[in-house]
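A note on notation is needed here, since sequence and fold are reported together in a single record. The reader may check this reading against the record printed directly beneath this paragraph.
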Amino acid sequence: MRVVAVIPARMAATRFPGKPLADILGLPMIAHCYLRTKLAQSIDEVVIATCDSEIADVAHQIGATVVMTSPDHLNAVDRTVETTEILQSTSRLPIDIVVLVQGDEPLLNPEVLNQMVSTMTDNPEVDVVNVMVPFISQDDYLDHNNPKVVVDSASNALYISREAIPSSWRDWNSSLSHMQTGLFAFRPAALEWFGVTPRTLLEEVESIDMLRLLYYGRPLRMHRISEPSIGVDTPDDLHRAAALIANDALFQQYRQLLN
């Protein structure tokens, strides 16, 4: 089995331009994502996919494989689709699972990536897996930068929104809604489907790519983990992430890989 992790990144992020190269304790954020992904035992290869030479230069400095992609992609999934096509065209060994690690997840736990791969190998009917985490606070729950997801009894997503769902008009129940993260796993056929299927009005309104699956009635399996996570969307998020990474045992482990 060949499992490839793709880390799509671009400089022109709408809410935080240049964030893949934002410094966190002496390393650019993209380096934290790459080195933590490399620690996942289930991942055979890790590549950084970008359209920006600045990111490519940094990726080469940390020893990463780089795939240069089109600058016209509107989201990370579409960039991953192109990257997978390029990787497949240059190797005779087929790819069985593609793990998409957003370049703004500097606190990702490599064990979670292993769990995502296991979910797919243990459940052949599951084509797409997305990780969700509990909200740290009600303020995070109300923050439009944090997508909220509600699930059915089988842990498949019912809906994802930047609004507070389900409604908190009576009270905030932290067990009913979780934060969607930027960690995904796809079977290649599902990724190819995503690439050829038109964008929907829902995903444009919410700015949430995975709504394309839900709109067309395709299941999205949500994998719940218990520890909170911080996806970096703003400079404030960056400061919060840096404070947590400073005391993180994994940081001490992977930064030595660069020495």
